[in-house]
Amino acid sequence: MTAITHLPALLAQTLAITPPTGSEYIRILPELVLSFFGIVIMIVDPLLDEDRSHKSLGAIALIGALAALVSTFFMAQDPGNAFWNMVRVEGFSVFFHALVIAISAVVILASYEYMAVQRIRAGEYYGLILFGTVGMCLMSSAVELVLIFIALEISSISTYILAGFRRREAASSESSLKYFLLGSFATAFFLYGVAMIFGATGSTNIDKIASSLASGSVPMLAYVAMGLMFVGLGFKVASAPFHVWTPDVYEGAPAPIVGLMSTGPKAAAFAVLLRVMFEINAPGRFWLLWVSAALSMTIGNLGALVQDNIKRLLAYSSIAHAGYLLVAFTAQPELGTSAAMFYTVSYAAMNVGAFAVVSHFGNVGEKYVTLEDYAGLGKRYPALAAALTFFLISLIGIPITGGFFAKFYVFSAALQSDLVWLTIIGVLNSAIGAYYYLRVIVMMYMREPRADVPCPPVPAATWLAVAVCLIATFYLGVLPGRVLRKATDAGMGMLHISQNTTPGATVASGQ
Amino acid sequence: MLHLALFAFFGIICVAGAINLLVQRHPINSALSLVVVMASLAAEYLLLGAEFVAAIQVIVYAGAIMVLFIFTIMLLNAGEEERTKGSRVAILLGVPGVVIGAVLVAWVLIHHSNTQSVTIGALLGDPKSIARLLFSDFLLPFEVTSVLILIAIMGAVVLASRPGAVARPQTTPAAAKEENEGPQLVAAGRERR
Amino acid sequence: MTPNLYLWLIPVLPLAGAAINGFFGRSFSKKTISAVALFFPGIAFLYALDIAAMFSSSAAPYFCELAPWIRAGAFHADFAFYLDQLSLVMLLVVTGVGFLIHIYSVGYMADDDGYYRFMSYLNLFMFFMLTLILAKNYLLMFIGWEGVGLASYLLIGFWFIKDSAASAGKKAFIVNRIGDFGFLIALFLLIKHFGTLDFTKLFEQIAAQPVEAAGIGTLTSIGLLLMVGAAGKSAQIPLYVWLPDAMEGPTPVSALIHAATMVTAGVYMVARSHAIFERAPGALTVVAIVGTLTALFAATIGICQTDIKKVLAYSTVSQLGYMFMACGVAAFSAGIFHLMTHAFFKGLLFLAAGSVIHGVGGEQDMRKMGGLRQYMPVTFATMGIATLAIAGIPGLAGFFSKDEILWKAYSSPYGSWIYWLIGVVTAFITSFYMFRLMYMTFAGDYRGATASAAHAHGDRSHGHGHGEPHESPWVMLGPLVVLAILSVFGGWIGVGGRFEHFLAPVFQSAPAADTVGETASSGVEHLLMAVSIVAAGLGWILAWLLYSRLPKLPGVIAEAFGSLYRAVANKYYIDELYAVLFVKPVVDGSSAILWKGVDQGIIDAIVNNAADAARHTSDNLRHMQSGNLRSYAGWVAAGGAVVIAYMIWMGVR
Amino acid sequence: MTSVTAIPLPYYLILSGILFVCGVLGFLIKRNIITIFMSIELMLNGVNLSFVAFAAHWHMLSGQVFVFFVMVVAAAEAAVGLAIIIAVYRTRETLNVDQVNLLKL
Amino acid sequence: MISALNPYILTLVTFIPLAGGLLLMFFPRRDRDIKVFSLVISLLAFVASLHLPVHLGSDPSLFKFEIDKAWIASPNIHYHMGVDGISVWLIVLTTFLTPLCVLISWTSIHERVKEFFILLLILETALIGVFTALDLFLFYFFWEATLIPMALLIGMYGHGRRVYAAVKFFLYTMVASVFMLAAILWLYAKTGSFDFVVLQNAIRAGSVPGFVAAAQWLFLGFFVAFAVKVPLFPLHTWLPDAHVEAPTAGSVLLAGVLLKMGTYGMLRFDLGLFPDQSRSNAPWIIVLALIGIIYGGLVSLVQPNMKKLIAYSSVSHLGFVVLGIFSFNPAGLDGAVFVMLAHGIATGGLFMLAGLLYERRHTYEISDFGGLATPMPKYAASFLFIVLASVGLPMLNGFIGEFLVLSGAFQARPIYGILAATGVIWSACYLLWMYQRVFFGKVRNDVNSTLPDLNTREKAALWPAAAIALLMGVAPLIWLSSIDPAVQSALQPFAQLAAKVVGQ
User: Fold this and answer.
1) B177: pLDDT confidence band, cut at 50, 70 and 90?
2) Rounded CA gap, E141 and A401, in Å?
């Protein structure tokens, strides 16, 4: 990206192209900031003493993430398209930028201790997180399928690598391999879909595609294209039947990274899915999403019932949550979008938190990740266990947690779209789901501690990470209004609907 | 006519190569047949007038990427793959699914893609016009690929380097479990300097 | 117009006594306890006498609205008391006899370390009994009704160390509950149809009702249900079984609760509800039949009992049968009359029996007694009087009341000669087993073990063990004497229908009863009277023959009628029958079918199976995760194929 | 503008489809991880062809530009993928995908 | 108390315990201080709650002490609380029982004392909240909020198969309440409001689109959630397990208050929002209730375990409540509410007593006891008193309620009353039999011969309950006078219904 600095002049001389204006750079500011800090890390890494480098590198990465977070604010200042309509800055993309960057910031925090305990190369680790975040950010703001594809690849590849970071464990490299191969496999489908949509409409720009599909009869190719793209994206968001990779990968990957990839890339992928499904008013999507949602919820929850490995359990739970999220996609766009966006936020909050706790309990080589190891943690780490309990309660979807409102909005959106059956399947699933989350709580509080499980002190960084997630979850559970408002606005913006005419608004105001 | 003949010729080679990739049991053979596929594809590109693409296809794909593959195969001196019974799902569910899907898609492509023909050089993909496009409309993706490549490099470095290569002092009591591993790793770390 | 007599004081006084002894008695000295326990009922008794003195039939009935109690929707029930001739009689009987028995208990229970408990229970009983009597509405009456049940539960189970006593208490309470069930339903019917339970309002409305023809009408069913309640409380067939067992309680309890007062509550209730019964001939007939049968049935059982108290218990049941017979023929006043006299002589009998038991150190088996007359003459004398009274020997209380009943049973429009016949037979049996009791206990020589083996019996009424039977202290004999006097002269107030006329204002609504009495020629009356006297006499003579002249004979007869004898001796196996018919099925059924079967076998099984099913599907589902990459690719590809197929279908549609 | 030397677009599309399907099948039936990876490349090539074909059909060069990006991505994937494969080989001493099933259920 | 704080009293009463619990979190682990503190807090809440009935005002049929503030703009959730003559007493019941629970747990909880009392106080807040909430969302929130602390109380401090019991309890309620959630969401989706009053008016005005079609399902959605809590006959099997395993305080609150959440919900929401459906569904509901009454009685007759016995007796008693509610007449509803309160006191007392015994002997098996009346007379006396209250002896609290319910049911349909009245017999059977087996006879087990009698703390925990039981029996008007009007107004729509029927 360093090339960018001198490029405009060059362009100007050689091929008389009007170079991008400064404001267009502002519109990709977060990406720039992130890449910059990524590069900084790469440069600094070799200079530092290996033994202690992970601390300082982590600091840099954290600063970078926070800086990027701040820069999203500037980015938000002047919405609009940039770089020949490659990216669009609007409420929607800003929302996801902030979310994704925040996620990686917290994950970086949570990784602090992990770095030390697991003895992982910090430089590449943090660098990859930052670069991966660039990809996720671009996914949310790109309105050009090719750019989306590349961004998707960036975030994916970085997570493929990160998944393999516990290099002493065979499991880690295996999960990396599975994730990589299947990921590329699915990406190929997505790409084929892009090719077909290009063939069908002669463009890969979301708006153009939308307009050309809207005008006249939808060509057959478009349907196939949509199908193929759904396969690719469905894989990324781990929705049934494309979820198969999730448990294995999550089990093998480093815990904080699971926290990241179960939320960050997922959120970005959902952003893309929202654009593809709603902004391009994707033809014939309804039953696709309906079935996929129902399947994901059911498979996820049922699959989790008998899991004994926390990470695997949470993997299944993430499948289930993807299902709940897809319920929102079946609802009317103006209702579903905001619901889905809110869901991504609260799911990120609780899940990252949960994994932060898990990664601490896991200890060296993540030896202690089975339910048995969690016996009696309520006694050993009262506070941390309480935190985990809170996250789990949120995942169950019990009031005063973000998880509750997330489900709540999704289901009320579904009901307002008269999707009674899907809602019933959903609530039943959330009831079933209660069981396996409860198992963890039961383990922590109702069993005697195991002597052989070590309990190292909880470092401040982990505390901070957990606290952030805790506060976020709680805030979303008590005062979801603001975030939902933002989500609604963003969603309307993306759907090009003016505020005052939305059912969402009437809901908000009530009677 | 000639045009069609060329198309058919390279097309058949291409498909043959692809199928050969599947039937060959030694990775090297598969790799070579993949090279064949790519070369013949380059020819197809030429037929479509995408000369620059054709060139890149040969240079980058057949030249760089496939070399990488073969290099790896050599490195890991992978032998004949043994016919293990790994997965029923793939055979019973996947293959039929794929076939069905393929048939359907083919049907769509034949009937529902607008069946207008294209001629040689229908659209000249000469370097200049492509470059113009690449540095205007696709400037951002182009730049972004740099990040992609950066990541790829880092990944390759991290994953390919031997696990012990980076040693961290034992920072937690829990880590003390691994005395056997610890010291020698540290040693390795030093000698790497 | 009615002077406000503080009626509520009468029940509340004993309650105070009960409370004081109950809470603090543990730390009191025996004297204090006795003082408290006697003081309050005493006052109540005196106050009752005072009321009786100033009672004027013209002013009756007296009301006393104390406080509102329940207000739910339109339904009201208050703490309201009510005094008329009927309740006055009951009041005097209960407070009077009750007080005497309190005095008696002071002596009888003196050595028991649960003394304070006992006394406070007795007071508590007085409270509930008086509430029952003085209640102005059925609900308040029901309070007393259940309350006396509670008191009897406590007192029967007073020696709870004895399992038999505990069970007897429980049995009494539960059987009573069964009765109360009927009572409750009756109340609901009343509420449903008349919207109130207040006697005055209720009976006004009912008086307006026509007499129901035979067959089930509302009033009839109400009457029958009330009768169920009464049968439970007053130990009528089929619910009499608890009373004999109730003899496990200390003897004064048997005297007070299970002879003189509580068991007669049923009779009182029926009499109180006469307005209903008079308009429900069907119900009346049932009452009469039940009463008659009970009278005969219980009497026959009485013949073969050897436990002195059991004999008296069955005799009580049988006498209660008489009373219901009276009520059943709408001769309520006769019933009440017998109730009163019975209270005197049966109370006396029990107290005397208690004195006997006390004298022989807790022995209750008559076969181990005999010849006690020289040891305890006073007891013998008083008990003799009582026996004469109950046997219906002319001149004594029992004679008048029983004769009244028999006559009414014959003459009343509801009556029939069958009732009369059975009544007479019963009278014969009664006098037989009563004199049998007298002979076995007092005649001949002392057959009891002189050692203090008695204590094994667990009746702690007798602290210091010694061989010789002995007369009881005067604190016990006093009441005997008083009751003896009452048993002699108590009946005279009934002569010439004075008692009946006194009660007439209450029962005046009764269509015919007394008028018929006049019309029937007094010749018949005297004839019947003679017959019953002869029957009583015969009973006496027979008893004298069998148990005084030729003591061997009873054994021989027993042999002769082997099975019959055994059946009678074992109370016709009724208890066993009930056990097999009701208790066992309920318990086993609940355990086997409901709990183990439905609860665990079906419901929980379903739930758990659902859970297991979920876990099982889940377990199968995991095998989707074979861990093999190509399988995963297979899923993805297949899924993709389905998606594409669906999309194409959408497209061609 | 159809001339004698014209070829119907569907031919190209079918060809690309065949390549793609071959790739998918390869993924499903091949055991050697590297070969599986190659079949992914095959799929990408198929996609590329249809990109170019569509580009010719729409007379839009962007279609050809996409091919470059796809190639770049393919290259990156190749680098990373092969590195991962090496890592797996280190820990497992095998390249048979059927034996890489530590994580399951 | 000053009526100035009327607008805030509900918030105060509801959240005093929670505040206490939060403070407790920062306490040092000195058990004694913790216990004393939580006792003080719970007493404080009790005193504060007494303000409610005192100032309930002339017309208890309306919602009093209302506070209605917008909480969340979207969805339109209000912090809307208010009480009428019915809920006010349930609140007082809760605040009354909690101090007793604290006392009863004084020595029985040894480890993780702090957590215990924190959970207890949180639970109290949730319980009170359920009875105060007038916003369906708020209600659901508190409803669910009771789950976790209760489950934890059972699971952390219970005995034997506590985990199984806790999970069973949690899942039963969870699964059932999601149906309620769905129904609530539906209502919200159609009306855009969670406010009970608003919804009620909207429904009565018939201005809810698609209501008629969905009403039956909505009714069922609510009803199932409540029926599980009650618990109604086929859904009751979680109760015995939960009770047997729960710590004493848990059982007391579970039986005393938690079950009432269900019946309260039926009364307030099922009858309040769906009068027509309540009517049309009444027959089978009543049948279930009757089965529950008899079935519960019979099954508890044969329980070898004291707590299980009491648990099943609860099934029987709560059957009375449901019966009363669905007989739709003042007597029935008055009775139902009264039984709720009475059962809360009596059964709460029974569980306390059982708990005391467990503290001494660490068993609930009836067969392990016998003859206890000799070593511990005071205890026996208290036990007998509570048993009699529970049996429904006149002049004690049990009787009033049962009598009213029965007469109400009888007026609705004689057979209902008759069948239900048999429950009176059963209750006498199982309780007295149990009492005899535990207290009467000789002391068979030497361990029992030296058991200490009640000490002062235990008396302090038990006798208030006994006193209230007596008071409720003698002066039920204190309660009925405010319950009755509220019930009348609750029955308004049914009166109209009947009128309509007559009219047609």
Assistant:
1) very low
2) 10
Whole-number Å distance between alpha carbons of E227 and E259 = 9
Whole-model pTM: value is: 0.86
**Contact with chain C for residue A284, Cβ under 8 A:** yes
The minimum CA-CA distance between C596 and chain A, rounded to whole Å, is 27
Structural domain boundaries, residue E104? 2-503
Within an 8 Å CB–CB cutoff, is residue A400 touching chain D? no
Residue in A closest to C628 by C-alpha: A178
pLDDT at position A189 is 93
pLDDT digits (tens, 9 = 90+) for E116-153: 899 999 999 999 999 999 899 889 989 988 888 898 88
In this complex, the chains that touch A, judged by 3 or more CB pairs closer than 8 A, are B, C, D, E
The pLDDT value recorded for residue B189 is 36
Provide the 8-state DSSP code for C248: G
Touching check for A511 and chain E: CB below 8 Å?
yes
Tell me the residues of chain A between 197 and 236 that have a Cβ less than 8 Å away from chain C. Answer: 218, 220, 222-224, 226-228, 230-231, 234-235
The answer to whether residue D39 neighbours chain A at the CB level (below 8 Å) is no
What type of residue sits at position E487? V
Mean pLDDT score, C187-204: 86
Chains near B with 3+ CB pairs less than 8 A apart are A, C, D
User: Cβ contacts (< 8 Å) between C139 and chain E: which residues?
Assistant: 403
Enumerate residues 6+ apart whose C-beta is below 8 A from A5.
Answer: none
Question: Alpha carbon of E145 to those of A441, E69, E124, E129, E238: distances in Å?
Answer: 16, 21, 10, 9, 18
The mean pLDDT value of chain A amounts to 86
- How many folded domains does chain E comprise? 1
Does C636 lie at the interface with A, CB-CB under 8 angstroms? yes
Chains D and E touch (3+ CB pairs under 8 A): no
- Distance, in angstroms, between A165 CA and closest chain B CA? 8
Estimate the crossing angle of helix A91-118 against helix A29-47, to 10 degrees. Answer: 20
Q: Could you tell me which chain E residue has the CA closest to the CA of A393?
A: E148
Contact C21, C127 (CB under 8 A): no
Q: For residue A147, list chain B residues with Cβ-Cβ distance below 8 A.
A: 140-141, 144
Contact C623/D27, CB-based, under 8 Å?
no
C632: chain A residues, CB-CB within 8 Å: 178, 182, 244-245
Q: Are D20 and D46 in contact (CB under 8 A)?
A: yes
Q: What is the ipTM of this complex?
A: 0.86
Residue found by looking up tokens 């093998």 in the block: A252
**Rounded CA Rg of chain B:** 24
Interatomic CA distance for residues D59 and D54, integer angstroms: 8
The pLDDT tens digits of the residues spanning A212-247 come to: 888 877 888 888 888 999 999 999 999 888 988 999
Q: Is residue E299 within 8 angstroms of chain C, CB to CB?
A: yes
Q: Closest by alpha carbon to A432, among A305, A296, A327, A323?
A: A305
φ and ψ of A263, to 5 deg = -125, -55
Mean pLDDT of chain D: 86
- CA distance linking residue E352 with residue B62, whole number of Å: 83
Please give the C-alpha separations between residue C54 and each of C49, C95, E396, in angstroms, as whole numbers.
Answer: 9, 17, 35
Q: E428 vs A75, A434, E479, CA distance in Å?
A: 77, 40, 25
The answer to which of C569-573, C643-647, E260-264 has the lowest mean pLDDT is C569-573
Q: What is the distance in angstroms between the Cα of C11 and the nearest Cα belonging to chain E?
A: 14
Q: Which of C427-436, C480-489, E125-134 has the highest mean predicted lDDT (pLDDT)?
A: E125-134
DSSP code of residue E231: T
